[in-house]
Amino acid sequence: MRLLPKKTGKPYPVKHYVNIMLFILFTALILDFIISYASISIVKQQSTRYLRDTADLYINRINHDFAYINHYMGWTLANDEIMKTMDKSQTASTEFLKSNTQLHQRFTELQKNYGQGYNFFFYIKNKDFFLNCAPLSIQYPDYLELKKQVISYTQDKNIYERFYSEWTPIHVKNKYFIINIVPYNDSYLICLISADELIRPLRAINLGENGSVSLINEKRESISTPIGAREKQLQQNTFKPALPSLVQSQTTVSRQFSNASFRVQMIIRFGTFEKIMVAQLLIILLALIIALTLCVVMLYFNKRVLKPIQSFSDNLAQLSEGGRDPDFESSKLIELEDANLQFKILIEQIKRFKIDIYEKELDKQRIQLDYMKLQIKPHFFLNCLTNIYSMAQMQMYKEIEHMTLSTSKYFRYIFQNGQNFVRLKDEIDHVRVFLDIQQHRYRNAFRYQIEELIDTQDIHIPPLVLQTFIENAVKYAVSRVSEVQISLSVSRLIEHHEDMAVIRISDSGPGFAPSILEKLVSGHPLDQSDGNHIGIMNTLQRLELLYRRKAEIRFGNREEGGACVTLIFPFHPPESL
Predict the structure, then answer these.
(1) Do 102 and 122 meet the contact criterion of CB atoms below 8 Å apart?
(2) Which of 277, 350, 474, 508 could form a disulfide with 485 if both were Cys (CB 3.0 to 4.6 A apart)?
(3) Start and end of every Histidine kinase domain (predicted)?
């Protein structure tokens, strides 16, 4: 499409082109402003939604912890022989001291599971005996003040409604704590946690430079300690946004705990978005300045540039119509004469571009394979860290060394492997590392056996294929009820005059569900909406792209119980990718 007339005639004035340019530029500026504002709003909404979901997950976890601890203390008071022995025995007797030690050990384990921030105490009213039954995370003066308050609370007839049915904030030595008192006859079990400790995980979230997290009681007062002067100012609402009409700089997320008389409040500050808006306005202003400058430039170079370009366009039209080379001898610009040669070179480049398009399609397939190949579930890494942390708490140093080394080997193999095919021996070694990691987690819940042939070790297969099905076996077959056997065997088969490697993965678990097995056997895709079956479907797609139906996967359930997956690969991988 040509902007200038095909034949010699009345030329368009420069104003015509300036108007077109200004119209396009003005439209682009408006679109840029709309898109920028929409982008800021969308990012803000998504960030707020993410923080709300995070708060909901946190609240649900704390509600579960509160409910379990409350139930555990109630059951201990009502049914545990330890408490009955302590209630009947004298405080200086051997039976009382032995029961006290057992109770301390039990609640120490409970504290390890739910965090050192939880403090546990018991009080026997008729013996006036008050003592902690787990390691303390509060200072001794706070302990003495708490003891006085708890003893006074036990005199209240409404202690059941006030402290047992709800987790209630109390004020001890200028600090707020959350307390739950479980009464049974004249015995009481108490759980206490600092308000600041309760919201410590939420304070680790990035809520903006001026964001804050706090606990609010029924009187809408903050019962958590502000962090620095900034958070104090936030609680007093002294922050004023720079652009209140364009961007709302503050969003408040509030969530109520169940069985508690307080709630968590997250104040999200979006000062960064105001800076983005200012930057967008500066960009628009800069574009306007550039547009005015271009208008002056176009007027200045009208006779020196536009007219020679019009002549050049006419010559190109002659080339398009008659097929003969254009004549640039009368051109006043040497650059336009050079453009003739570049135009001829361009024709040759177009031919090469067609070949490049085909090659880019192949690259696109490679990228798709790499994406599916390198998908890693982040929760696996977090589980590894959690296991190492648990071992550290139990002082299992040798197990920590082995677990750390296995985890390092596991992720080194994943991150350093950028090929489409790897040796079968390396893939099986990676599976061993994965199973060793899982054995640290499940202990004696499963055993595994790997059988491989020497002449099949150098076969090349796609990476992480075996791990997908081994991981599926661990996820769905392994339980802590009975020991599960996981087996991996490699054999050789000649099919259609071609050497094939047969890899069989089986387990002694419950096997595939009938509905899932029916879809796998018939080749229908599995439902991935809930985040399950992604690994199996990705593996099937990878094998289809790499082998073009020369590889085969068979799914089934064993007669003696358990799932069985058989993979058949050619000895020599295809070279198309």
Answers:
(1) no
(2) 508
(3) 465-573
